[in-house]
């Protein structure tokens, strides 16, 4: 079978996989920030029981392999809650919660790097603790965290291919389906690899642009 | 500007850190428009005393009164009192991610709930007061220490405080920058702002302060007007302390 013909025939099918993959990565990153940032705040400023619970969460999601987590959620957690969840939702949830565990530690480090004087000054003009965190600490911490946080994108992007195991129709799953239909192996896998590399490159470009855009004199290297 | 209205009362403040008793019962009263300078050796509790006044440090014992209202034991109300008690720090502590003008206006917007446009106008006015209006759009990292300190004074002024606490405002600055900051402070004092200043600048203390408090070992050991300090014999220890500057200066 002619490789070029195969690619033209199957490419639209792969495109669908690209959307699924980006959907997984996007929701995982979003969940990661939505949960990870408050968790970081809780770990730094929260009371003991809160810090303890967050610690357990982080320990659990960082301690288990992605594949194990996927199966636990797919066969255990979701059915156990009486939810008949599509594989995509399970994949996005697992990648997102796992991302939150990792990202919370990136944000925690960044929050702790903001000097104590910033909080003292914020309180001295009458801000509450929460106002100080929101208006003074977090805007600085996020800027410190961004380079390390950017690293989460390629991590989650590559991890997302493991969702193949629970049958999410993402790039890797569709690639394997094409291989089993056409019996062409290497060329097809190479196309899949090429798409991953491109997605990675494009995403990092975007993140660098954001980094540049929110850059402020005094933060990061090359400070004014 | 001066009248006899007492604006701040500090009663019997005690504070220990572990086994170290930093403040051993400090009391004093401040009249509206007064400038009081706290001098004395390092580690005698001067800065801790200032921080106990707006409860950035919680005193173990004693009370602080702003006008007729108690600041200590004010619970959540403390944030209200802190608006009325401005503070200027040795290391400026400007908000590093905000431009000079944003530093001054942020509390107006977030704490006072002022409209952004109104807050900007007020912030610009305060920057003008300290001669920093041309630097309004610069970030702290782009300012000299003296400029940063003047912005932080503007930040304190913006809240229209009843009193401003200065915690060694020039200790991190070279003589030239020290002068530009002291000049701003002198202008404020003359304009009737009530100020408590922890400082090692004896020239400033003697020329601007209404009263000088000499602190040592967590107590106010000697106090009086600059004139009394120069002439009266009760200021022996204090004069010894100041004399050490003169020796090094070759006087």
TrEMBL record, chain A:
It comes from the Archaea. One of its GO terms (biological process) is amino acid transport. One of its GO terms (cellular component) is ATP-binding cassette (ABC) transporter complex. Residues 18-207 form the ABC transmembrane type-1 domain. GO terms for molecular function: transmembrane transporter activity. The chain crosses the membrane at residues 12-40, 52-75, 182-203. Coiled coil: none annotated. This is Amino acid ABC transporter permease. It comes from Methanogenium marinum. The lineage of its organism: Archaea, Methanobacteriati, Methanobacteriota, Stenosarchaea group, Methanomicrobia.
From TrEMBL, chain B:
Its main location: membrane. One of its GO terms (cellular component) is plasma membrane. It is found in: Cell membrane. GO terms for molecular function: ABC-type amino acid transporter activity; ATP binding; ATP hydrolysis activity. It is a peripheral membrane protein. Gene3D superfamilies: P-loop containing nucleotide triphosphate hydrolases. Residues 8-242 form the ABC transporter domain. The keyword Transport applies. The keyword Oxidoreductase does not apply. Keywords: Amino-acid transport, ATP-binding, Cell membrane, Membrane, Nucleotide-binding, Transport. SUPFAM superfamilies: P-loop containing nucleoside triphosphate hydrolases (SSF52540). Belongs to the ABC transporter superfamily. This is Amino acid ABC transporter ATP-binding protein. It comes from Methanogenium marinum.
């Amino acid at each position: 079978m002619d490789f070029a013909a195969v690619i033209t025939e199957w490419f639209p099918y792969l495109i669908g996989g690209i959307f699924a993959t980006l959907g997984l990565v996007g929701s995982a990153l979003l969940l990661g920030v939505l949960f990870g940032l408050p968790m970081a705040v809780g770990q730094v400023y929260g009371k003991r029981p809160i810090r303890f619970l967050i610690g357990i969460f982080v320990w659990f999601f960082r301690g288990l392999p992605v594949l194990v987590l996927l199966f636990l959620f797919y066969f255990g957690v979701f059915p156990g809650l009486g939810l008949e969840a599509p594989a995509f939702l399970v994949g996005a949830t697992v990648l997102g919660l796992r991302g939150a565990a990792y990202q919370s530690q990136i944000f925690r480090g960044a929050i702790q790097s903001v000097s104590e004087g910033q909080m003292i000054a914020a309180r001295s003009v009458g801000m509450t603790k929460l106002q100080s965190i929101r208006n003074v600490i977090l805007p600085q911490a996020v800027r410190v965290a961004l380079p390390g946080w950017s690293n989460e994108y390629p991590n989650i992007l590559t991890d997302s291919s493991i969702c193949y195991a629970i049958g999410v129709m993402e790039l890797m799953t569709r690639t394997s389906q094409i291989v089993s239909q056409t019996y062409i192996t290497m060329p097809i896998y190479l196309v899949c690899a090429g798409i991953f590399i491109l997605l990675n490159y494009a995403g990092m470009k975007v993140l660098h642009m954001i980094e540049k855009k929110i850059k402020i004199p005094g933060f990061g290297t090359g400070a004014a | 500007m001066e009248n006899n209205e007492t604006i701040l009362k500090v009663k019997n403040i005690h504070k220990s850190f572990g086994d170290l008793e930093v403040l051993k019962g400090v009391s004093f009263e401040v009249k509206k428009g007064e400038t009081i300078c706290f001098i004395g050796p390092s580690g005698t509790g001067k800065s801790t005393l200032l921080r106990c006044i707006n409860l950035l440090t919680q005193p173990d014992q004693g009370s602080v009164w702003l006008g007729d209202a108690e600041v200590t034991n004010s619970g959540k109300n403390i944030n209200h009192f802190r608006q009325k008690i401005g503070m200027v720090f040795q290391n400026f502590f400007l908000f590093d991610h905000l431009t000079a003008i944003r530093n001054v206006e942020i509390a107006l917007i977030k704490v006072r709930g002022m409209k952004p446009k109104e807050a900007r106008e007020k912030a610009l006015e305060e920057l003008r007061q300290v001669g920093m209006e041309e630097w309004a759009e610069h970030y702290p990292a782009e300012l000299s220490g003296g400029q940063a300190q003047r912005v932080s004074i503007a930040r304190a002024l913006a809240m229209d405080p009843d009193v401003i606490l200065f915690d060694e405002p020039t200790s991190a600055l070279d003589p030239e920058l020290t002068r530009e900051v002291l000049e701003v402070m002198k202008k404020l004092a003359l304009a009737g702002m009530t100020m408590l200043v922890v400082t090692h600048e004896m020239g400033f203390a003697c020329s601007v302060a209404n009263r000088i408090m000499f602190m040592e070992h967590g107590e106010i050991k000697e106090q009086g007007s600059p004139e009394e300090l120069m002439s009266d014999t009760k200021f022996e220890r204090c004069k010894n302390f100041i004399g050490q500057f003169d020796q090094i200066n070759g006087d």
